[in-house]
Design goal:
Blueprint lengths: L4 E9 L3 H8 L2 H7 L5 E6 L2 E5 L5 E6 L10 E5 L2 E12 L2 E10 L5 H22 L2
Antiparallel strand pairs: 1-7, 2-3, 3-4, 4-5, 5-6, 6-7
Length: about 130
């Protein structure tokens, strides 16, 4: 058994948590705020196809809509599978969005830091979009 290094990246959004979840849970909306995930989203059965930031084709499986604020998704890039845990929770009258980033042993510290920065940018973009 092994445990990876992790980092929880969070942003507070001044909007009802259910509204944040309702917007963020629609896969088509990810390309409006999650540049680090990809662009040109297209549904393909229960999965989605997109281009990652480097232009490579990826497949994404999103969690089903739920009442708990879970926005988990799995990214399939070639033979690599990355599971991403994302939550939207109430924070007084607003919302807290949390992304748990994991660092597998084959990932360098530099790539982990770059991934964390990309997640932070994406969450700030979601905040800006929803607080307009």
């Amino acid at each position: 058994m092994s445990i990876y290094k992790s980092r929880i990246i969070t942003v507070s959004i001044d909007r009802d948590w259910r509204e944040v979840y309702d917007f963020a849970s629609i896969p088509e909306n990810f390309q409006r705020w999650a540049a680090g995930l990809g662009r040109r989203f297209e549904q393909s059965g229960e999965e989605w196809k997109a281009e990652d930031p480097d232009g490579r084709l990826i497949r994404i499986r999103f969690s089903r809509p739920n009442e708990f604020g879970v926005l988990d998704h799995i990214v399939f890039a070639g033979d690599k599978e990355t599971r991403n845990a994302v939550r939207v929770v109430p924070n007084a009258t607003g919302a807290e969005v949390m992304f748990t980033l994991l660092k597998p042993p084959d990932m360098t510290e530099e790539i982990f830091a770059a991934d964390a920065a990309a997640v932070e940018r994406d969450l700030r973009a979601l905040k800006a979009l929803l607080e307009r």
